[in-house]
Every structure is written in structure tokens, then in C-alpha cells.
């Protein structure tokens, strides 16, 4: 999430100060083995929140609220607010956090790195093995553009309306390892490609595998990375539930030997571009036909696909209600533009996003 000045809404490079305050203010949660956290990110004008692993959506809702609240409380002591925006509506000159890794990235990627300031929503879902994980990756790749459209929350960039619902997706396209991945077929092929990418020296290490979904480095999970940071806690809960539904459905298909969809990666790139451009304001690419369809038809198809998994997890009603709310009220991109249309001031867009952040730490 962005760290923005309380007076004018502009991003401020205070993540180092915020992390010190977050460490001193964080309150423990009894009975939790793996804790969430507030952590730094690539640029000093942003912060990352992690949630502890949970099994149900109510637990996830509390975790997201708690850690957004922790970040907000620490930010207030630095004269800042936390804004759940995927890009900055107001002009900003990003300043990279101090670390050898980030210094290497700035030197290697030059203007791409110097201009990069985006915030995403990454969802981890557990898998039993790398083989199952790659089987999942091969089967969910066709649905990830729909998640981008649903979560789109970055229409503005450096003081201008970009014409995109998710300009974050365009900024990420400048990085060499970003985007939809090919069909792998096996964990061996996945790891072979990752090794070759690292050995190419174009990227620094495995942490720079920026696929829309990948095997996580440090956890036994599939990490789905396609979504913008979500405008509200409830939208984040819906996106996470859909991700779990996709992984559970794909794992079952893999276990029963159902073939993964044979969709060319280039078509998925087109679908991702279309999702970033239109969001929920137009038509998305239906991967089955390769043709544009109304956005809510495509999202309805996604819900039908994962419906049995959502029902089994007890998540279906929450997702249905959440999607209905987004259809009525709009996602982050639509809400940002509605605020600007009403006031004509981008600072009000930032202020409205700040109001979505929990103001109290949720225990």
C-alpha cells in the first residue's frame, strides 16, 4: 500500500521510520504460530502487509483488517496515512529502499526501476507438493486475467488518467519476467525454466520470477500475483476466496488427470492487457473462445467454475454477496474515477482511499 502525506496526499518516503514504529506498536495475537507483519517494499513510499495463514474467510477478514490497521497506526506517527491504491494518482518520484538487492535492480533496470511504484495483492494457497503446485499453475493460468479485472485499482499514474482500469499491469509489463506463464507439465520443467532464467543474468534470482502465479520460494504454496491491491478489505477477501477456489478446483482436476487448457500464452497476454484496460467497465476475453464477452459474463463463468470448491469450503455465499456488492458499487478503479468526477481533485481520490483503511488495530 502507498504511504501518503496527511496534508496533501502525495506519497512520502518514510517506510523506514514506519517499520520502526510498527515493530514497537505491534500487538501479539495469542495462539497464532505464524504471525502476519508490516514490512518494507521496493520503494520507500510503500509498505507491505502480510497476514498469518488462516482456514476460513472470517479469520482472513480479521487478519487483513488487523495488519492494515497496524500499518495505519504506525503511519500516523510519521505524518502519513496508508492508502490501498495500486498506483499513485498524484505525481511522485519513487525512492528505492536501501539494500544491495534493490540497488542492483535500480542499476540493472534503470528507468523501469526508477519509475516503478505499484502495489499488488498476492494470495498464497497451500499445495501438497511441487508437482501438485505446477499442475495447479497449468490449470489456473487461463482465469487470472479475470482476477485482474475484478481487482483493478490503478487508473491514475503521476497525475493523469491513464485510460486503463489497472495501469499497474502496464507498469509490470516493463519487467522481463512478468506476465502469464507457459504450460509446464511437470515440476521438473518449471524448475528448469526458473534456473535458466536466473542463469541468463537478466534477473537476479528466483525472487524475480514475476509470473502471474508461481510456486512460492519459502512456503509450500502457490502464490497468485495477478491482482491489484484491493480497495477494501471485503474485496480482498473475495479475491482470496476465488484464488483458493481456483487452486482447489485445479488440484482436483490434476489429481484426476484432467488435461490443462491448451491456451497459447500470447492469447493470455492479450486477455491480461484487455483486463487491465477495461476492468469491470467493458468486455473481457473469454479464454475458451478467444473472443470478447461482457465482463460479468466472464466473471460468472469463473464463479461457475469454482462454485463447487467454494461451496465445500463454506465460501460461496460470501463470494456471491461480495461480487454483487462490487457489481453495484464498482471496484477500486471505478470508485477512484467516481470520486474525481464528483470533485475534480486527485487529492480527494487519495483521501477516499485512506478512508477505506481500518483506523484501529484489530485484535
Automatic annotation (TrEMBL):
Catalytic activities: L-cysteine + L-glutamate + ATP = gamma-L-glutamyl-L-cysteine + ADP + phosphate + H(+)
One family name in Pfam for this protein: GCS2
InterPro entries listed in its UniProt record: GCL_type2/YbdK_subfam, GCS2, Gln_synth/guanido_kin_cat_dom, YbdK
Any GO MF annotation of the entry: ligase activity
Keyword line: ATP-binding, Ligase, Nucleotide-binding
Alphabetized Gene3D superfamilies for the sequence: 3.30.590.20
Top-level EC class: ligase
EC number of this enzyme: 6.3.2.2
Function as written in the Swiss-Prot or TrEMBL entry: ATP-dependent carboxylate-amine ligase which exhibits weak glutamate--cysteine ligase activity.
Family to which the UniProt record says this protein belongs: Belongs to the glutamate--cysteine ligase type 2 family. YbdK subfamily.
Name listed for the protein in its UniProt record: Putative glutamate--cysteine ligase 2
Amino acid at each position: 500500500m502507498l504511504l501518503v502525506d496527511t496534508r496533501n496526499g502525495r506519497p512520502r518516503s518514510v517506510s523506514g521510520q514506519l517499520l520502526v514504529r510498527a515493530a514497537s506498536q505491534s500487538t501479539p495475537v495469542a495462539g497464532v504460530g505464524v504471525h502476519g507483519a508490516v514490512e518494507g517494499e521496493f520503494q520507500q513510499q510503500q509498505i507491505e502487509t502480510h497476514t498469518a495463514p488462516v482456514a476460513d474467510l472470517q479469520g482472513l477478514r480479521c487478519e487483513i483488517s488487523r495488519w492494515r490497521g497496524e500499518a495505519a497506526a504506525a503511519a500516523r506517527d510519521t505524518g502519513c496515512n496508508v492508502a490501498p491504491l495500486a498506483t499513485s494518482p498524484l505525481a511522485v518520484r519513487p525512492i528505492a529502499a536501501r539494500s544491495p538487492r534493490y540497488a542492483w535492480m535500480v542499476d540493472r533496470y534503470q528507468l523501469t526501476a526508477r519509475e516503478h511504484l505499484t502495489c499488488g495483492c498476492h494470495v498464497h494457497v497451500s499445495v501438497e507438493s511441487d508437482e501438485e503446485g505446477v499442475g495447479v499453475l497449468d490449470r489456473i493460468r487461463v482465469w487470472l486475467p479475470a482476477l485482474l479485472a475484478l481487482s483493478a485499482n490503478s487508473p491514475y499514474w503521476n497525475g493523469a488518467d491513464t485510460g486503463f482500469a489497472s495501469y499497474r499491469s502496464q507498469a509490470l509489463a516493463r519487467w522481463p519476467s512478468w506476465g502469464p506463464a507457459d504450460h509446464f507439465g511437470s515440476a521438473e520443467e518449471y524448475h528448469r525454466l526458473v534456473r535458466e532464467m536466473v542463469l541468463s543474468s537478466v534477473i537476479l534470482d528466483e525472487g524475480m520470477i514475476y509470473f502471474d502465479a508461481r510456486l512460492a520460494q519459502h512456503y509450500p504454496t502457490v502464490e497468485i500475483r495477478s491482482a491489484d491491491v484491493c480497495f477494501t478489505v471485503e474485496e480482498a477477501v473475495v479475491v482470496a476466496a476465488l484464488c483458493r477456489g481456483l487452486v482447489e478446483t485445479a488440484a482436483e482436476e490434476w489429481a484426476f488427470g484432467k488435461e490443462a487448457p491448451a491456451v497459447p500464452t500470447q492469447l493470455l497476454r492479450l486477455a491480461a492487457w484487455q483486463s487491465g484496460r477495461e476492468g469491470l467497465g467493458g468486455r473481457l476475453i473469454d479464454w475458451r473462445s478467444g473472443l470478447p464477452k461482457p465482463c460479468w459474463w466472464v466473471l460468472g463463468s469463473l464463479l461457475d467454475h469454482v462454485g463447487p470448491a467454494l461451496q465445500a469450503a463454506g465460501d460461496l455465499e460470501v463470494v456471491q454477496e461480495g461480487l454483487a456488492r462490487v457489481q453495484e458499487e464498482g471496484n477500486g478503479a471505478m470508485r477512484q474515477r467516481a470520486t474525481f468526477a464528483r470533485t475534480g481533485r486527485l487529492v480527494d481520490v487519495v483521501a477516499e482511499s485512506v478512508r477505506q483503511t481500518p483506523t484501529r488495530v484489530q485484535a
